[in-house]
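Dear Dr. V.,

Thank you for agreeing to look over these. As mentioned in my earlier message, I'm a first-year student in the group and I'm still getting used to reading structure tokens, so any feedback on how I've presented them would be very welcome. I ran two proteins. I've put each sequence directly above its structure. The first is here:
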Amino acid sequence: MDDKKIMNENVPYVVHEATLSRLERGNRRMLIALAICVVVMLLNNIAWFVHEEHIANPDKYAKQEKVKDDDDSQNEDNYDDYYNEDDRDGRGGRGH
């Protein structure tokens, strides 16, 4: 026990203050790293909840295209004519 008192008395004040300031900087860095980890964790959880919401309600977030009924009947005929014209190249069928 006497040895510890002698060692503590022999440490200069400047060395003691330098050590304390270095420990304080280390603690500050650890708190900043902890705060960043907490923020990233919260953002990750928010992103997960948004993702789950999109899966649970796909109709709510689906994009809907407006199609007129009058154009549907005309487009079907035009597509058939277009494909029939492509059959002239001698490949022998659709999709080849």
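The second protein is here, in the same arrangement:
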Amino acid sequence: MNTKANSLNNYIKSLFAENFDPRGVASKNLFFKKQIFLWLDTHGAATIPELSRGLNISVPKVTSLVNELMKDGLIINNGKVESTGGRRAAVYGLAKKICYFIGVDVKRYYINIGLFDLNKNLVKLKEKIPYPLENTQQALSALIQNIKKFIRESGVGSSRILGMGINLSGRVNHFTGYSYSYFHFQEEPLASIIAHETGIKTFLENDSNAMAYGEFAQGAVKDEKHVIFLNLDYGTGTGIIINKKLYYGKSGFSGEFGHIPFFDNNILCGCGKKGCLETEISGMALIRRVKEKIQGGSPSLLTKKVKNLQNLKLEDVVEAALTDDMLVIELLSEMGEKLGKALSVLINLFNPELVILGGKLSETGDYLRLPARSAMNKYSLSLVNNDTQLKLSELGERAGVIGAGLIARNRVISNEY
């Protein structure tokens, strides 16, 4: 990491350090600068009088601190606000281009990468970069090379990128930066290995948690505080938000909803156990059922599109449902009923305000949602499910990359290293 990047990182760290000596003018000024930054981050652009009232700091003091923050490059003058009389006041907001953050969402067959400015805007996005996710050194090297290429093409330079969030499926400890499902070849945390290769502070996150946060920050969540997000892709994951914060559990492994032993079906799950929820409610389960039905003689549009069923992908199955393939629609209805029954367990436990269906399977829309809603009503307590909305993801494919980028931003700003 070069000198310019270190200087900016050190300034951000000092500004957002949780603990510093409150004695002395310099320390107090740093504390007040942090409060001004956080106020603008939460409420948006504001005038000096608005900042003074909101933070209970005198106008002269706020004026002095804002001028210093402008000199530091973190705040800009957005011009004059409209006034009904008298002199128009200047409006100040966070500078967009002083620094950036990256979100990387690693899927089974491709990668999505996004670049975010300081104001949480997604300024550059590259989707569906071909990439086979495998637990090999070659796959890790390819991931790093794709990230480096995106950084080069972004045009902003790595010195201005303060943090990067990377999503992976499976067991991820976001506290330590270790992945226990992919790329665990060395004793060093995966986050540290990628940070060393790219020169950017890196944070690992479970993909379902990141998608849940993406929907919370910029998607289907409006004013709800308690939310459950289901990532229905090849596997089945869950992100849980309680009181507006992601719930991780002790080691960061919460949300493994797909590995609850829900069925007595003797089907082996990818985790090595039998009867997991994921064996009948997931993209892999749907692909398996489609193959079984077609091989048993059931008609489907997929027989024309996919010559070799061994090459059948979830994208093919979802597309078939959206073109009125009755076989797939019927299987989705069956799966939706099982999903709703399983969701009733979560609803009775957590009493959430909102459940969001996300991941590739959610693109089938009401083919999955309606039977799930019906089964939820049937199997959960009425006083509980009456309080729970069931929505489809609003961000769709972008949920993970948005969540990853914003989580990285939050951890840099909160100094959670």
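From my reading of the second output: The chain is about 45% helix and 20% strand. The first strand starts at residue 46 and ends at 47. Does that match how you would interpret it?

Kind regards,
E.
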